[in-house]
Amino acid sequence: MREAIIKSCQGDLRKWPDKVQEAVFADRVTVSHITGYSPYQLLHRTDPLLLLDLAKATFLVGILIALFNHLWFLLFLITTVLIIGRGST
Q1: Angle of CA points 14, 18, 24, to nearest 5°
Q2: Angstrom distance (rounded) from CA 56 to CA 47
Q3: Cα–Cα distance, 58 to 80 (Å, whole number)
Q4: What global pTM score does this model have?
Q5: What is each CA distance from 5 to 17, 67, 70, 73, in whole angstroms?
Q6: Which of 4, 28, 41, 62 could form a disulfide linkage to 23, CB 3.0–4.6 angstroms apart?
Q7: What mean pLDDT comes out for the span 58-79?
Q8: 25-63 tens-digit pLDDT
Q9: Which residues does 39 contact at the CB level (< 8 Å), separation at least 6?
């Protein structure tokens, strides 16, 4: 843990109090090669939710919303064509 804090300070050791939380978090979510689990997984029986997971989930929601909007527009066009088609006969 000490080495992780020193490395994250990038030469300015006065920053170490700000870097402790990052080092502890990294230690808690890193999978052990001996157990195959991270301390977080052992304690909570689930994988930790990381920022990358949130970004990926948000990206997927954006895709689903775009798909829904396209399908909604397609349904609108089909309904309009059917209504116009009925009116001209």
Answers
A1: 125
A2: 15
A3: 33
A4: 0.53
A5: 9, 44, 49, 53
A6: 4
A7: 75
A8: 889 989 999 999 999 999 999 888 877 776 666 666 677
A9: 27, 28, 29, 32
